[in-house]
Amino acid sequence: MREEMRREFKKKMVSYVLAALGLIASLSWNDTLKAFFGQLFSNHKDTLLGNLIYSILVTLIAVVNSIYLSHLFKDDVEAKKKDKEEDAEGDAEGDAEGDAEEDKNE
């Protein structure tokens, strides 16, 4: 029960972090697009370049963190799945040993 709660907590945290990073990336692109269209009608090149560089960096950070967090969670899920498979195999072997013991007693 406790392990299941930990897993759910991790899953929710990953979702919230990814949502926050996505929001930051989208807001930075929003500023960049505003500056870009502002550039079309005025002469503020430094603002456009700064926003573009910022947006690219934030997007790269969001993508790298998304990949890292996804792999982190995926590894945790795979480890749990492997543990469950090993437990199931151990139970099956225990059942087979119990059957052999019963045949021996007859």
Features:
mainly alpha, 0% strand, 106 residues, 2 helices
Walkthrough of the structure:
- With 106 residues, this protein is mainly alpha-helical.
- The protein has one domain.
- Helix content is 95%, strand content 0%.
- The chain is built from two helices and no strands.
- Helix 1 packs antiparallel against helix 2.
- The mean pLDDT is 77.
| Mean pLDDT level | 77
The major beta sheet can be summarized as:
none
Assign the structural class, choosing from mainly alpha, mainly beta, alpha/beta, alpha+beta, or little secondary structure. Answer: mainly alpha
**What string gives the helices and strands in order?**
HH
Uncertain regions spanning at least 5 consecutive residues: none
Q: How many separate helices?
A: 2
Measured as a percent range, the helix fraction is: over 70%
Cα separation of the termini:
40 Å
Radius of gyration: 26 Å
